[in-house]
Amino acid sequence: MRQIVLDTETTGLEFRLGDRVIEIGCVEIIGRKLTGNRFHRYINPEREIEAGAMAVHGISNEFLADKPKFREIVSDFLDFIRGAELVIHNAAFDVGFLNHELSLVGLPPLEEVCSGVVDTLRLAKELHPGRRNSLDALCERYAVDNSGRTLHGALLDAELLAEVYLGMTRGQESLIVDMEATVAMAETVTLSGERPSLIVVAASAEELADHECVLQEIARESKGKCLWLEGSELAA
User: Fold this and answer.
1) Is-catalytic flag, 89?
2) For the stretch 113-125, what's the b/e string if a residue is b when 16 or more beta carbons lie within 10 angstroms of its beta carbon?
């Protein structure tokens, strides 16, 4: 399976009030391994960044002034994620913003481009109910080094989330490995079309006599209720 771990940064918290995407970061996972293939773009949002958002990601209006507009990078972005399963922390936020951006340029939503979306925040809440499940908290829980994360950044956060996601779903990897090993083992077994003939060893007269003595002793001890003798009589 091809998966794309994705994160965005924005001008604010609400696209319905005009906030826009200013950074997209993606990393690729194939067969539960990071391939090193990435997509990263800064985007001119054509509006001012809110002070609260700037304090989170540190991206300034001046920095974005000469960056491409979303409509100029959307084709490359869609080509990178097309057909993949998206892995996103608090997916509703990023998907909402990206679908809004796509609608502004007359393109269909992500759901029609990708095979599905995994929300790692929802997954973390199921695995760790009642605990903090922010990206930083999950990095600590799964021993992912986030010491370089002084500010939020789409590409950095996507890279950290990829490591966290692989840690959170490691049991699935074990199951896949076990299934592959079972299939491989089954493929190495060859069955012959014919069974080997059985070797029949008949009891000697002396062995039969000893057997009869044992049965008679059992009959005496059980007051005539020896099942083996009854079976022999019925067979006779």
Assistant:
1) no
2) bbeebbbbbebbe
